[in-house]
């Protein structure tokens, strides 16, 4: 088996044995066309006839090779608020960018995304907001991520 060949995923399954695994971020799991490299160095491509991927999905390639999806930690910003109005305004601004978001009580978690850079910078300047850049598992509220 040569390494320059890209395997094509033809099916997504759950209850089968996997030959290999791949770590994907939340964002990669949402992509309609994903090209990735497994832990064993196998290049593969997933096309959009499936919905997005989930942790523990088994990707079955044309030749029968199977790769299990593992979740990698995402680069995230955790914003904690001491003021309800500032919290609401920030949530609204992020929502306007159509970025996926995790909203909890006085806490917003977003992916480190270039399109939110200006909002994050404003948050750093605001004494009512504690900003922490970290790695973690992103689980957005609802079906926030969509395209127009």
UniProtKB/TrEMBL annotation:
Residues 5-67 form the UreE urease accessory N-terminal domain. Keywords: Chaperone, Cytoplasm, Nickel. GO terms for cellular component: cytoplasm. One of its GO terms (molecular function) is nickel cation binding. GO terms for biological process: protein folding; protein-containing complex assembly; urea metabolic process. It is found in: Cytoplasm. This is UreE urease accessory domain protein. It comes from Arcobacter nitrofigilis (strain ATCC 33309 / DSM 7299 / CCUG 15893 / LMG 7604 / NCTC 12251 / CI) (Campylobacter nitrofigilis).
């Amino acid at each position: 088996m040569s390494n320059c060949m890209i395997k094509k995923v033809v099916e997504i399954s759950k209850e089968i044995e996997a030959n290999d695994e791949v770590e994907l971020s939340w964002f990669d799991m949402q992509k309609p066309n994903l090209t990735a490299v497994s832990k064993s160095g196998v290049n593969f491509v997933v096309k959009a006839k499936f919905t997005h991927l989930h942790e523990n999905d088994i990707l079955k390639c044309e030749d029968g090779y199977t790769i299990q999806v593992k979740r990698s930690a995402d680069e995230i910003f955790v914003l904690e608020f001491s003021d309800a109005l500032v919290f609401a305004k920030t949530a609204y601004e992020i929502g306007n960018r159509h970025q996926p978001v995790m909203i909890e009580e006085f806490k917003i978690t977003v992916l480190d995304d270039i399109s939110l850079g200006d909002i994050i910078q404003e948050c750093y300047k605001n004494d009512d907001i504690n900003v922490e850049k970290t790695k973690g598992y992103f689980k957005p509220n609802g079906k926030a991520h969509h395209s127009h």
